[in-house]
Amino acid sequence: MKKRIIFGILISIFFLFLVLRNINFKDMMQIVANGEYLWMLPCLGTYTLSFIFRSIRWKYLLSPIRNFKAKQLFSSLIMGFAANCIFPFRFGEFVRAFIVGKKHNLSKSASLATIVLERIMDGVGILILLGVALLFLKKIPSWTKKTVIIAILLFIGSLVFAGVLIAKKHFIDWLKKIPLLKHELKEKIIDKIKKFLIGFEVIMNVKGFIMVIFFSLCVWICETFNLFFLIKITGIHLSYFTIIFVLFATVLGVTIPAAPGSIGTYEFFFVASLMFFGVAKEKAVASALITHSFGIIFVMVLGMFYFFKEGISYKEIAAAKK
Q1: Maximal CA-CA distance, the chain
Q2: How far lies 42's CA from each of 230, 233, 289, in Å?
Q3: Residue partners of 177: CB distance under 8 A and separation at least 6
Q4: In sequence order, what DSSP letters do the residues of 135-199 get, joined into one string?
Q5: Which residues are CB-contacts of 169 (< 8 A; sequence separation ≥ 6)?
Q6: How far apart are CA 153 and CA 295, in angstroms?
Q7: How far is it, in rounded angstroms, from Cα 272 to Cα 238?
Q8: CA–CA separation, 167 vs 169, rounded Å?
Q9: Burial zone of 150 (CB within 10 Å; 0-12 exposed, 13-18 middle, 19+ buried)
Q10: Long-range CB contacts (within 8 A, 24+) of 17-20
Q11: Hey, CA dihedral for 48, 50, 52, 54, is it positive or negative?
């Protein structure tokens, strides 16, 4: 974990250097100080709503394993997102799988699979919105269409591959024929894979899968409104469709391994996309600091509340990971 943190910090430092070089810090801080922070009020509503939609979507993703109510999953969801702000390399995803597995006696492999599928559906949701936005945006970077096509192929390929494995689970038994592995180890690996695939079974249920897509769209509509409101704090006024593109570029950026909370990568891609649409660098950086800080503080406050309320410690999670 220490090596991962150091590696992530180095990446974040590199991207922060790119963002902050040749910037007028005095002007940037003045923009932050003079911000219209009343715009945070509607954002509190849309941010909360986005997590409610995430909880409902997770309920559908978990439906092949067990029926849940969204409110039963909300705290585990928030704690996982809070852990992503503390630990590098999306460690919060494991935290979420561990917590929901412990609270509801579920297979952690199956729980983790639903979170992996959730990330795939996040991509589907933002791509659908981006597809609509591109119909209205006259000015977009040349790399956008190629990136969208590659992303669509990757998402479709992932879903098809998972569907084939689910439909033909018995093919996994070929692992038993691998030499040099002990029988107990083979059985353990096969059991883990089969449990993991259970978490993908919602894609075989047409109604359930449609609901997952629907709530993925709801999540990302809320996320775009979050940015739409927050950038107004620094006096930036862009169309809703432009904000969709800014969010898409930022989401791509935070997939790069970095320090906890995607510090550096978030700022670089957020600022670069705003500057592409003519926003001054000082104003773009000020907006990046505000939007990123708002999201981290919101998740951390709620996450720490639930961690203390439910008495879950990092040592307990680390021990389970081993």
Answers
A1: 68
A2: 9, 12, 18
A3: none
A4: TT-S---THHHHHHHHHHHHHHHHHHHHHHHHHTGGGGGGGGG-TTS-HHHHHHHHHHHHHHHHT
A5: 194, 197
A6: 30
A7: 15
A8: 6
A9: exposed
A10: 18/268, 19/264, 19/267, 19/268, 19/271, 19/285, 19/288, 20/285
A11: negative
pLDDT in tens, 139-190: 787 777 777 788 778 877 877 777 766 666 666 666 666 666 666 766 777 7
Q: Where are the domains of the chain?
A: 2-13+36-321
Residue 280, SS3?
A: coil
Residues constituting the chain: 322
**Residue pLDDT, tens place only, 53-103:** 999 999 999 988 888 999 989 999 999 999 888 877 778 888 888 888 888
222 CB-contact burial (10 Å; exposed 0-12 / middle 13-18 / buried 19+): buried
Q: What CA–CA distance (Å, rounded) separates 108 from 180? A: 27
Q: Taking a C-beta distance cutoff of 8 angstroms, is the pair 108, 101 a contact?
A: yes
- Residue 242 pLDDT > 60, yes or no? yes
- Tokens 């909370």 map to which residue? 261
pTM: 0.87
Is residue 220 within 8 A of residue 129, CB to CB? The reply is yes
The position carrying tokens 């439910």 is 310
Determine the Cα–Cα distance for residues 114 and 52; give it in Å rounded to an integer. 17
Tokens of 294: 């708002």
Q: What is the CA radius of gyration of the chain?
A: 21
Q: Report the SS3 class of residue 86.
A: coil
